[in-house]
Amino acid sequence: MSVHLTYKKATENDIDFLLDLRMKTMNPHYASSNLPTDRETTLSRILYEFEKANIIFLDQQPIGLLKINRTDVTTEVLQLQIDPSQQGKGLGRMILTGILEEASAAGKTVSLSVLKTNKAQHLYTSLGFTIIGEDEHSYFMEMSPF
């Protein structure tokens, strides 16, 4: 089975989708970390570096968000969220593998952070990311070029 994902730059028209997505994907982790989950805080997280946000589509249906910051030397995955109905199908792994291959070809390091309560950290570790630091709530992970 071939999966074809497409991306579209997020616009203000996507805010409602992104708010719903973030509440489904992230608020349980924020709640278990005793971090705010109110609408205003959630919206501010969506708007953080919004110009780097891309909606992920599967068969013309929006299923997620990829917010990524590419510089000359690093690629930082700021946010990656997949709708819970689409999780567990290898989509996150496929997206991250593509990012890692692109970064490796350019000799870039890839970095991200993950809440300690988020099981996605196991995916990141399985792809070769290592923990390079942490704070009270998050692990900071990195993968250097192959």
Key structural traits:
single chain; 146 residues; alpha+beta; Aminopeptidase; 7-stranded mixed sheet; globular
Description:
- With 146 residues, this protein is an alpha+beta fold.
- It has one domain: Gcn5-related N-acetyltransferase (GNAT) (Aminopeptidase, 3-Layer(aba) Sandwich), CATH 3.40.630.30.
- 33% of the residues lie in helices and 33% in strands.
- The protein has 5 helices and 7 strands; from the N terminus they run E-H-H-H-E-E-E-H-E-H-E-E.
- It has a 7-stranded mixed beta sheet with strand order 1-2-3-4-5-7-6, with helices on both faces.
Short description:
The protein is of the alpha+beta class and 146 residues long.
Number of helices: 5
**What fraction of the residues are assigned to beta strands by DSSP?**
25-35%
| Main β sheet profile | 7 strands, mixed
Assigned CATH architecture = 3-Layer(aba) Sandwich
Placed side by side, the strands forming the largest sheet appear as 1-2-3-4-5-7-6
- Could you say which overall geometry the principal axes of the C-alpha atoms support? globular
